[in-house]
Amino acid sequence: MYRSEYLKDSGRTERQGGLSVQVLGKPVLPWLLAGVLAACPAIASAGVEEGLAAARQNDFATALKEFQPLAEHGSASAQYYLGSMFLNGQGVTINPAVAVKLISQAAGQGFAAAQADLGLMYFNGEVVPKNDPEAVKWLAKAAAQGFANAQFLLGLAYLEGTGTALNEAEAIRWFSAAAEQGHAPAQYNLGSLYLSGQGVTRNAAKAVSWISKAAGQGFAPAQFMLGVSYAEGTGVAKDEAEAVKWFSAAAEQEHAPAQYNLGSMYLSGRGVTRNAAVGIKWVSKAAEQGYAPAQFMLGVAYAEGTGVTKDHEAGIKWISKATHQGYAPALNRQSTMHQNEF
């Protein structure tokens, strides 16, 4: 029989560089990030505002013309935005050294977005040598100014003991500060901690409340975890149809565990009308992303002809892929394989 259980082993933070995050995977021009101007209101001159307006229209030549003289005269905001252009190669040739110099100058003047970006650079160690304590120093400066992404990253540093002593209470404090500002990954992490009772008294209802806020913003890991909560009745009344809804939302964003769980529910007819073909479609998507439980389930489906035409070779192929990842059910199945039977 195929395995029809839903999995919750992805209910943890995602990785980025040395930290568990799912934001800013690659440096992005910060003025294109929602809320950054609200977090850094001290835009001192019309020239900076004109440069930002031009950048939003992808007119980087005009943005460069506006930012450069202001940066040379010490405008922190202009230094930051000009440094971001050199970091991303927008309107100029990519030059990490110039970018770091400019962003560092802005950070030194107290510009919170620059401090946050500089901290992230030190964590990632891509454009500057990796230096976790230096990263924490700059993130703490930005977090103290209320910059939500810095608060989130600082919370992660405390949670993992990266660049600072592990301190779960401080992690909760900074996740909470960012979550209250609507920062979806912080809301998700805060909810996850309430769900596990790590650093805080376990409170499933409060966990689901925070995870729901992140899910409502379209954050796929939160949508997945909310689906698990409804499937299990953890912190909410059990509602498998609602679980299908949230697994579907995350699955559409290519979240492999959600695709697997959604496929499992279609295969078993839980929360949705049973449809083996649709179930296999979603399991296949997760398997193709390298998700071992899905690879195993797909292999068994081919071996048994569940939702697909029975295919011995395809069954071996997918079970072997899961085996190579050390997935225990696949290893157990392989140990009992016979030439024509799994």
Give the topology:
Layout: H1 36-39, H2 46-56, H3 60-72, H4 76-88, H5 96-108, H6 112-124, H7 132-144, H8 148-160, H9 168-180, H10 184-196, H11 204-216, H12 220-232, H13 240-251, H14 256-268, H15 276-288, H16 292-304, H17 312-324, H18 328-335
Helix pairs in contact: 2-3, 3-4, 4-5, 5-6, 6-7, 7-8, 8-9, 9-10, 10-11, 11-12, 12-13, 13-14, 14-15, 15-16, 16-17, 17-18
Pairing-aware structural class of the strands and helices?
mainly alpha
Determine the number of helices (DSSP H or I, runs of at least 4 residues). Answer: 18
The ordered string of helix (H) and strand (E) elements is: HHHHHHHHHHHHHHHHHH
> Helicity level, as a percent range?
55-70%
Largest sheet: none
Please describe what this structure looks like:
The protein starts with 35 loop residues before the first helix and ends in a 7-residue tail after the last helix. Residues 1-44 have low confidence and may be disordered. With 342 residues, the chain is mainly α. Helix content is 63%, strand content 0%. Helix 9 (168-180) crosses helix 10 (184-196). It has helices at residues 36-39, 46-56, 60-72, 76-88, 96-108, 112-124, 132-144, 148-160, 168-180, 184-196, 204-216, 220-232, 240-251, 256-268, 276-288, 292-304, 312-324, 328-335.
